[in-house]
Amino acid sequence: MANRNLEKLASIDAQLRLLVPAKVSEDDKLVEYDALLLDRFLDILQDLHGEDLRETVQACYELSAEYEGKHDAKKLSELGNVLTSLDPGDSIVVAKSFAHMLSLANLAEEVQIAYRRRNKLKKGDFADENSATTESDIEETLKRLVGDLKKSPQEVFEALKNQTVDLVLTAHPTQSVRRSLLQKHGRIRNCLTQLYAKDITPDDKQEIDEALQREIQAAFRTDEIRRTPPTPQDEMRAGMSYFHETIWKGVPKFLRRVDTALKNIGINERVPHNGPHLFNFLLGWVAIVMVIQE
């Protein structure tokens, strides 16, 4: 069983290398993360829908990778033949499988970005937010403005103080990702991060791997859109979830990074945080303007 799993991972790994050669040359962890998630998902797909459907999805994936790598028209024709031969029910499952696989690939890339940032921090490429550069691109952007475009640090600071950001929040069922699905994706991301921690024990690794499989299956079995029309209250709850899960956490962290980047170009002042913040909602029949004064 162990040898079989290694063979499957090696096969998926090879296909991924055809699809993402540029990323592989930069850091191999992305392929490792992606191969693990796809392997776990294909096992789950087989448990839910049978070995034949798993083989169909994997065949489509491999043909796509081969066409992308070599641009062989025969492979594209083979892929078309496989897809057109499917009955409507299997077509839906295959399409949903690829949508889910793309989501898993995005999650793998997010974990990879965080991994690379931590490595750079350990190597001294970036320092603590209180005293030096952050792991974001803000630092490099401000340095280019001052160094390459010859803007003064004060000009950069004044421009930042006058920036406005208009957030458009929608809870329309065809445009928003369901909150439950976002939560499952967050847990998959956390499991993947923990699974590759250096100090993990074999028992912990098995438990986290099992949790990862549960979350992948739960996400796959969650419908991406609601099948019943949401009420205005449902739409408002969906819109407010962006505040609870994204804005309240992300905005303060981002502003701290901006302050750090400014400090590194010689500005010891902070971007003012005491102005009114306007959030405009257009959620179905509900239109609300919230003014939050810090």
Strand order of the largest sheet: 1-2
What pattern of helices and strands is seen along the backbone? HHHHHHHHHHHEE
Largest sheet: 2 strands, antiparallel
How would you sum up the global shape? globular
Keywords: Cytoplasm
Subunit structure: Homotetramer.
InterPro entries: PEP_COase, PEP_COase_Lys_AS, Pyrv/PenolPyrv_kinase-like_dom
Active site: 172
Model description:
Homotetramer. This is Phosphoenolpyruvate carboxylase. It is found in: Cytoplasm. Keywords: Cytoplasm. GO terms for molecular function: phosphoenolpyruvate carboxylase activity. This protein has 294 residues and is mainly alpha-helical. It has 2 domains: 1-116, no CATH class; 137-172 and 228-283, no CATH class. The protein has 11 helices and 2 strands. It has helices at residues 2-19, 21-26, 29-49, 51-70, 73-84, 88-123, 138-147, 153-161, 179-195, 202-220, 232-264, and strands at residues 277-283, 286-292. The chain has a two-stranded antiparallel sheet with strand order 1-2. Helix 1 packs across helix 3, helix 1 (2-19) packs parallel to helix 4 and helix 3 (29-49) packs across helix 10. The protein is globular and about 65 Å long. Residues 21-25, 126-136 and 284-294 have low confidence and may be disordered.
List the helices and strands and how they pair.
Elements: H1 2-19, H2 21-26, H3 29-49, H4 51-70, H5 73-84, H6 88-123, H7 138-147, H8 153-161, H9 179-195, H10 202-220, H11 232-264, E1 277-283, E2 286-292
Helix pairs in contact: 1-3, 1-4, 3-4, 3-6, 3-10, 4-5, 4-6, 6-9, 7-11, 9-10
